[in-house]
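Batch manifest, entry 17 of 40.
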Amino acid sequence: MPPIQIEMLYFAAVRERTGKAREAFSLDDAGNLSTLQAALLARYPDLAPLLPHVRWARNEAFVAADDLDVPLQAGDRVALIPPVSGGASRVGLTSLPLDAREVEALVAGPDRGGLVTFTGCVRDHTGEHGVVRLEYEAYAEMAERVMDAIVGEAEALHPGARVAIRHRLGVLGVGELAVVIAASAPHRAAAFDACRFTIERLKADVPIFKKEVRTSGEVWVGLGP
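Output type: structure tokens
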């Protein structure tokens, strides 16, 4: 079998050790993350001290450290993610389906007596118009910074609250989740208030743009037909 081609992405210290931000990488047809790791070390031996501190991501989803036998397929995008500033991010944009439980896990804890989750899904109509699908795009870099700021505001306004946001991009069918917001706090009132504050600010300020594909035509929401 011919080798498979994957795309590698490198960031921060990993990028400095490899000397590049991305590259095409070839593996045999039985390749997995373990064989990829061995191939990377053979090409870039200076990565060895960093590997205990980085996380693997495949197609924009983190892979558990004990699951490196996951098989790779042609066209996969694999990233080596160094520790991020401030720890694990509680905001993010993704083209993958959302899982409310994963977002809740970012804010849950034994000291959290209240956990409130808002999920926004694609409905099949807007007013009298039937909706076939939604298409989301974003000014991603700015959107994530604004979401970070909103989380900070929500937590400052509602002491004890902890908030996380995930938003989908791309094409979404009816019933799919477009956004998940989870808010936790020692008591339920702060969790409810922080969650409501976050969704209202997100809808007003975050540069995420929505096109409705209707049975009668298409419209960018907020701009009219």
